[in-house]
Design a protein that fits this description.
This protein is mainly α and about 400 residues long. It is about 55% helix and about 5% strand. The protein has helices spanning about 1-15, 30-55, 60-75, 85-105, 110-125, 135-145, 155-175, 210-215, 225-245, 250-255, 270-280, 300, 310-320, 325-330, 335, 355-360, 380-395, and strands spanning about 280-285, 290-295, 365-370, 375-380. A two-stranded antiparallel ribbon has the order 1-2. Strands 3-4 form a two-stranded antiparallel sheet.
């Protein structure tokens, strides 16, 4: 009896949305990120309200506070939603306000006026691809105000356009510099890493972006997720499923530990000799406490050579590394040419985390570091291929 009551209670809570069984849990978002979003919304609404009070009349500003507050929830809490795009936000408010203002001049009955306004606003949002729910509240401001006096068309400029412009500007700045999100990039069909038009290795099989976009457009209602986010969600789900099936293979299991390393003050020609001697493509750069400082690779050395032809390349290499000419080049150290902006992984990260880094990011080697940044090992494409092959043999 007690078990049945517990199951019934769980079912009721799940139906009310208090227990998340089949949707994203907001509590899964890091607490620091939630606090940053709340602070960003606070800053945005404070600036918008203060600016409007200085440039527009107090009555109009107060009435628009509700719709601006609702917009801030979308812009900061759901930034990747199609409903929160700059066009949806700006046009959703401005067009809705225009519709509401026109209706307030055409009708006298409040019930009819409100109903026609919201019906027209929804239809116009569909036409102009600018669905933004708080725009419905903005449209009703002139309708509500008409019970006392009909607003003039300057209402569209002050305070609507003013509020929209300030809120959009503040949101873009906060997203870029505070929340570090920026505007959502458009999907690229050109690989900037390898300079070709083929899809990345992970995207050549299975669902294609066109399939996802076609599926989104097959719905007869607005789906609150973009094609890019849906694609990312699909690929992450694939990686999660593979991790569940492949067992516990960690970076520490497959990484190389006996590494050839250099320090930032190692002469560049010596780093080149080490690369040639050990027939490797890169060397980790560490300090005297084993902290990873960067990576120096063959590409890092060669890409700085200004050569018009292959013969010129041979001449510069002869002077640079055989120490016969170019004395200035001989003074260079590893610190002058190394890559310091690195992607690293932790030793307990799963093998599946390496796959998109090596396949789609164009990386050939990934340093494995401790949480404090101390170099522990290196994982290469060969290590991952060997691990996947061995796993396949063990399950054959």
């Amino acid at each position: 009896m007690q078990r049945r009551a517990k199951n019934l209670l769980s079912a009721v809570l799940a139906q009310l949305g208090l227990i998340k069984r089949d949707s994203q849990r907001l509590s899964a978002i890091p607490l620091t990120e939630r606090l940053k979003v709340a602070l960003a919304a606070f800053i945005a609404l404070f600036i918008v309200t203060y600016t409007s009070l200085q440039l527009a009349d107090t009555a109009s500003t107060i009435v628009l506070l509700a719709s601006m507050g609702a917009s801030s929830v979308l812009l900061f809490g759901l930034p990747n939603s199609p409903l929160a795009r700059p066009w949806s936000f700006a046009a959703g408010h401005l067009i809705s306000a225009t519709v509401g203002l026109v209706c307030s001049h055409l009708f006298t009955d409040l019930a009819l006026m409100a109903a026609v306004t919201i019906g027209c606003v929804l239809f116009v949002m569909y036409i102009f691809e600018c669905m933004h729910p708080p725009g419905g509240a903005t449209a009703l401001v002139p309708v509500i105000a008409s019970t006392d006096s009909v607003l003039g068309y300057d209402f569209l400029l002050y305070p609507v356009a003013l509020n929209v412009f300030v809120m959009l500007l503040v949101a873009i700045v906060l997203q870029k510099f505070w929340l570090k999100r920026g505007l959502q990039p458009t999907a690229q069909k050109f690989d900037p890493v390898h300079l070709h038009k083929d899809a990345s290795p992970l995207k050549r099989l299975g669902l294609q972006p066109e399939d996802l976009l076609s599926a989104l457009n097959s719905f007869d209602t607005v789906v609150d997720i973009s094609e890019q986010d849906l694609e990312r969600l699909y690929h992450q789900a694939q990686l999660n499923a593979y991790q569940r099936k492949s067992g516990e293979i960690r970076c520490s299991d497959i990484m190389s530990r006996d590494l050839i390393t250099v320090t930032p003050d190692t002469p560049l020609f010596l780093a080149w000799q080490l690369l040639r001697k050990h027939k490797i493509g890169s060397l980790p750069v560490i300090d005297n406490t084993q902290q990873l400082q960067g990576i120096i690779s063959t590409v890092d050395i060669l890409k700085h050579l200004q050569v018009p032809s292959y013969a010129g390349l041979l001449k510069q290499l002869n002077g640079l590394f055989l120490q016969r000419h170019y004395k200035q080049q001989r003074k260079l150290t590893v610190a002058d040419r190394m890559s310091a902006n690195l992607i690293t992984v932790l030793p307990d990260e799963h093998l599946v985390a390496l796959v998109p880094l090596l396949s789609d990011k164009g990386l050939h080697h990934i340093p494995v570091t401790s949480a404090e940044g101390k170099l522990l090992g290196m994982v290469t494409q060969s290590d991952v291929i060997a691990a996947l092959f061995n796993r396949q043999l063990n399950h054959a």
